[in-house]
Design brief:
alpha/beta; Rossmann fold; globular; binds ligand CA2
């Protein structure tokens, strides 16, 4: 049995060519980033994940924003500044382009949506930068989701939460985060992205030298 693999329009295709006469070709197609590849290889019905699925090759990062951050720049400028979330996204996209990162930028006022994005990132992303906003101080569920993500995680707060009310001093997310940025204003987002890009580049360089592909976050 000869297994050949290719990818057409984001669909991974495995050909199983049997016999010496007119070839019997079985085609199995899976959408890019689907769970099907690891499943297929575990069941021995397909090959190992192709190189593009390798963690060190991924340059997708998620920037996730929690509740009320959609109001950024519209209220409380003394605490959060004048920039809107759209301005923050634009700044993040500039850094992403410079550092050759693919970026998904999200905001939600709903805890479950944030959890769903973190789950999605488990399958596709090399790192997460998150401002969980008020969920920082309340959400074990977001902590649990982040604990199931393997890559680097950076926690961002626009304000210096430690200078504010006592209830903002505790963060559930900090026990998982590889780094925390607080009090740098909206610049904290681009700083976090620069750090993610650095870690991703470092891992890719190690991989090129024949090192482990699973060192992200070290
Ligand atoms: O400093 C941060 O980035 C925070 O994560 C922001 C949260 C707050 O609950 C955290 O303790 C610290 C609040 C986000 C609400 O953002 C607003 C922005 C403008 C106007 C109103 C709310």
């Amino acid at each position: 049995m000869t297994m050949c693999h290719t990818e057409v329009n984001g669909i991974k295709i495995a050909f199983d060519i049997r016999g010496s006469g007119p070839p019997l070709i079985l085609i199995m197609g899976y959408r890019l980033n689907s769970r099907a590849w690891p499943l297929a290889s575990r069941c021995s019905i397909g090959p190992s994940p192709p190189v593009s699925q390798d963690l060190s090759m991924k340059r997708l990062v998620y920037v996730i924003n929690g509740p009320n951050l959609n109001l950024l720049g519209k209220r409380q400028p003394a605490i959060y500044g004048h920039e809107t979330l759209a301005d923050v996204e634009a700044a993040c996209r500039r850094v992403a382009t410079e550092r050759k990162l693919e970026l998904k930028f999200h905001q939600s006022n709903r805890e479950y949506e944030i959890i769903d994005w973190i789950h999605e990132a488990r399958e596709t992303a090399a790192g997460i930068a998150i401002n969980p906003a008020a969920f920082t101080h309340t959400s074990v569920a977001i902590l649990d989701a982040l604990n199931a993500f393997d890559g680097p995680v950076f926690e961002i707060h626009i304000s210096n939460v430690h200078k504010r009310e006592a209830f903002r001093h505790h963060s559930y997310v900090s026990s998982r985060a590889d780094g925390v940025i607080a009090g740098f204003g909206t610049q904290g987002y681009t700083l976090a992205l620069q750090r993610l890009a650095h870690l991703i580049d470092e891992t890719a360089a190690k991989k090129d030298k024949g090192g482990s592909a699973t060192d992200l976050g070290s």
